[in-house]
Amino acid sequence: MRIGRTCLWTTLLLAVLARADAPKAEEKHWSYEHGITPTHWGEVAPTCKTGTHQSPVALSTKQAKPQAPGQPLEISWSKVTGELVDTGHSEQVNLPPGNFITYGGTRYELQQFHFHSPSEHTIDGKHAPMEVHFVHRSADGKLAVVGILLKQGAEPSALAPVLTALPAAGEKRTVEVDLPALLPKDRRHFAYAGSLTTPPCSEDVQWIVMVSEDTVSKAEIDGFHARYAKNARPVQPLNGRTVAIAP
């Protein structure tokens, strides 16, 4: 009798474990080119469909309004050692504390940066081959993202250590990054209220997009394209939002 009970409990335990390991039928995974593509992201995150302050957007140097006083941008970046990972949607470098921006009197700590191709934002109607997003977070959890469009140049860039030796899926790699070298010399920038450009498409994100593009080499672009040929969300309606441009 004891043997029978032991077998019964073993059978029940195996059944429970099997259910726990089995994929849930209701789980949905978003993508860029297959399955749940950007036009259907609302199926996994309703804000992607219903939000009125979505990103990216089309930026125009002629239509942007002059930035109001009291919104200075200060960037405090340095050389840093980060952890390069493949998220399944992009290559991302996670960073330790110590680098930050100050915008409108609020300090935002740099958390990570990642890439999109082609650029998600357009400037004066044009995409760049790539765009890098530097994601910052304030002490109260608000986000500010600095975007830099990347065009093709002749020489290797400061991003070469990241883009030319990507880790295999599921692996991590330590990289040295010279963050100040990634900034264009011209610090003019667009500023607008937007959202994350991937699900959950959360809004109330402060966007700061540099007017001047930076450069990366063809080898760097090709290195990223070998893993992610297209991972950009189309531009979204402004819905009456104001885009400012700093002098």
Topology:
Blueprint: H1 2-21, H2 47-50, E1 58-59, E2 65-66, E3 73-76, E4 79-86, E5 91-94, E6 100-103, E7 106-116, E8 122-123, E9 130-138, E10 143-153, H3 160-163, E11 172-178, E12 189-195, E13 203-210, E14 214-217, H4 218-225, E15 244-245
Parallel strand pairs: 1-8, 2-15, 10-13, 10-14
Antiparallel strand pairs: 3-6, 4-5, 4-11, 5-7, 6-7, 7-9, 9-10, 12-13, 12-15
Task: Provide key terms for this protein.
two-stranded parallel ribbon, 15% helix, 13-stranded mixed β-sheet, 247 residues, alpha+beta, 34% strand, Carbonic Anhydrase II
State the CATH superfamily name.
Alpha carbonic anhydrase
CATH uppermost class: Alpha Beta
- Supply the helix-strand structural class: alpha+beta
- Helix amount: 10-25%
Tally of domains: 1
- Unreliable spans are 5-26
Mean pLDDT: 90
Shape: globular
Rg from alpha-carbon coordinates: 21 Å
Largest sheet features: 13 strands, mixed
Topology-level CATH name: Carbonic Anhydrase II
- Give helix and strand order, one letter per element, not per position: HHEEEEEEEEEEHEEEEHE
Distance between the termini: 84 Å
Quickly give the CATH architecture: Roll
- Give the percentage of residues in beta strands: 25-35%
Tell me the number of helical segments per DSSP (H or I, 4 or more residues long). Answer: 4
Number of strands: 15
